[in-house]
Amino acid sequence: MAEVVNLRTARKQAARKAARAVADANAAKHGRTKAERDLEKARAEKATRDLDAHRRETE
Fold it and tell me: 0.70 cut: is pTM over it?
């Protein structure tokens, strides 16, 4: 005998799976994690500080 399936639940699960696939695709296409953004910002600030530290004072 076949297993009884709640169609409403199956439809909701399919919608969640489709939404997850779209979200994963968008994240791969556009997104970076907050940690990655913060790390890049910190590296850029450090590079600026290091460059400023090596400048010569001219009068």
Answer: no
